[in-house]
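SEQUENCE-TO-STRUCTURE ENTRY
===========================

Backbone structure tokens: a row of integers, each naming the local backbone shape at its residue.

Task: work out the structure tokens from the sequence, keeping to the layout shown below.
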Amino acid sequence: MKHLLRYCLPAAALALPLAAHAQNELSNFSATGRGGVINTFAQDYQALGINPANLGRAGQAKVAFSIGEFGAGLGSQTINRSVINKIIYNSDETLAAAPSAQRAELLKAFSGTDVLNVNIDVNTLALAVSLPNGLGSIAFSNRHRVVAHLDFNEKAADVLVNGKFAPSITKYYNPTTGAPQPGTAAPKVSDFLDGTNIQGAWTSEYNIGYGVQVLDKEGFKLSAGLGYRYIQGIGIVDIQASSGSLTAYNSLSPLFKAKYGTLANNPNFNLQTGGGLNAVGSGNGFDVGLAAEVGKGVRLGASFTDLGSMTWKGNVLTSNDQTLQATNSDGLSTYNIFKELGNQFNSDTKNLFTYEAAKERKASLPAKLRLGGGYRVSELFEVGLDVTLPLNKVAGNLSSSFVGLGVDYKPTNWLRLSSGFTGGAGYGKSLPLGITFVTSVWEAGVSSRDVTGYFNDKSPYTSLALGFLRFKIGGQK
């Protein structure tokens, strides 16, 4: 666990200013400028993972491609801006010994839902081609996604901050010896951590999609589309405690340099070694959608995305519900919460619960239902409404439903401004803003999911998306 946090969460923090929802349009700078509203706006390769039926809409470019679009982010609904800044920029600052005002502040900040949401989305390469004779369009892309989501109940936050000296655990175990306290019985882990979620995942996706117009009547056009992705898993951590049950497993690439101790010798453990981005899991995902055009300007879209599953086969550890154990952790000594969080849920030291070796672990993809409606007033102005609903609670999915209103406006033929208003997905309300420079064949832009989030002390939300090499040749500009 600590190795995924060491590489993924700090990587997101160092890449700040950032932030974003756990949606794969983060690398789409124009969609980010609308707060993630994209279902009726997306064309060419941008439709991959959103609504492949948009590939069948009229007016597609003959060829569209992009290299290196990037989006990433960090936000919290419980931690204030000053603490976030210390975690990101001054994580080595020493904390006063307990009890202290610093620790009391952190305990309050780390208790609740959406304590931290971190996302990185990199579109390394994307290409779309319109086929002749009305046969639709086909698109391809490669995308890396890193996501993390943290919820802590008060007991989990107490142990994170104070370790074995946390009052929530000293009632069960002596902090000096680790021995059980006389006359007490430790609870199940699921009860102690109830409401706690620690989730992170890093995947590399190879997407292909096809869309075609299936109905062309006066005043009504209907397109259908299908998308497929082959997914390589670089690493995953998924710990969820809720309503008397515990789900906990991880599978980490050798990149993370995890130490497994005696578990590595277990015959049920598929130890994978090596370097680079060696995958420890693979899977298949599917998207299916419909897109309609009504009259001259109304657009409607509906899609199911990320249907399918992953199978993790390398370095897999799992855990079932069990009696809460003592921990060796001394709690936070600095603002480096990522290191301490790893210590609390690591597999090679004495912690709250133990892992077992496993041959493999199968997990569903973060499935979503996407609904959208839009109105294209003219070539200069378009507005859209999106609703995205998570269909499961696996690592990488939205923590709650997303709703957004987005607007594109072209005051000149070389400039497009985007904005809107969005809410949900674990980030609260936001005011996005995007600026895109447009020529007949080239687009480049920069955007933020929430311009107010840079300044908010409560619920800080910092975001940035960039793209400089998007090209469209032929067709509608």
About this structure: Confidence is low (pLDDT under 50) at residues 1-24.
